[in-house]
Amino acid sequence: MILWNRMKYMLSPQYDIYKTISKVVSGQVADIGFGTGFGMHLLAQNAEVTGYEIDTGSIEFAKDVFPYLTFKSGDIRKGIEGKFDFVIMIDVIEHIRQDKKALENVKAMLKPKGKLILSTPNRLSRYRKSKNHIREYAPKELEGILKRIFSVVELKDYQLKPVVNEYENPIIAICSN
Fold first, then answer.
1. Average pLDDT of the chain?
2. Of the CATH numbers 3.30.1330.10, 3.30.1330.60, 3.40.50.150, 1.10.260.40, which one belongs to the domain with range 2-176?
3. Taking a C-beta distance cutoff of 8 angstroms, is the pair 27, 7 a contact?
4. At what angle do helices 99-109 and 139-147 cross, to 10 degrees?
5. Residues 34-43: what's their mean pLDDT?
6. What does the pLDDT look like over 57-83, one tens digit per residue?
């Protein structure tokens, strides 16, 4: 069931998000909560990507489908070793109860000029609601929590253009220090 739910993202905005951000990432990239691994396949076109996931079934599935990529067990709530140019979290933060701690751990993973690219459904939108989400964020709420941890926070749409209305869904945040 978990893998089926994760595979459905190919029919959702996640594919478009990964496709768009694959054009801007480079260097060492960590993909947190990679799901099926398909997004990593796109990111690996321009970067050296390592995927981290807590679901062992997802890790095994991704290793079988994408044997040329690197997948590891990792929990962002506990912290992940390594320094990266980019940390990617596509539709992950809304599943984490300790969101602030997870974001602090992401900050520790970033190289000095590194960036976090995070997406999440917009609480104000009527689309993509899920009973599996611990919480959902409105744009100002997301920006507020991110600004407590990162110096620079930019909210974007799935094409990485500035958010023009509060109902934009999903919300993409690009954060750095």
1. 89
2. 3.40.50.150
3. no
4. 50
5. 91
6. 999 999 999 999 999 999 999 999 999
Domain boundaries, the chain: 2-176
Q: Are 62 and 36 in contact (CB under 8 A)?
A: yes
* Pair of tokens at residue 14: 């996640």
- Choose among 142, 134, 58: nearest CA to 95: 134
Asked whether the beta carbons of 117 and 173 are under 8 A apart, the reply is yes
**Alpha helix (H) residue ranges in the chain:** 2-7, 13-21, 38-43, 56-65, 99-109, 139-147
pLDDT, position 132: 80
Rounded to the nearest angstrom, the gap between the alpha carbon of residue 162 and the centroid of all alpha carbons in its chain is: 18
What's the whole-model pTM score?
0.89
Q: Would the CA dihedral through 87, 42, 2, 5 be positive or negative?
A: positive
DSSP secondary-structure letter at 97? T
Is the pLDDT assigned to residue 129 strictly greater than 70? no
Taken in order 173, 47, 100, 118, is the CA torsion positive or negative?
positive
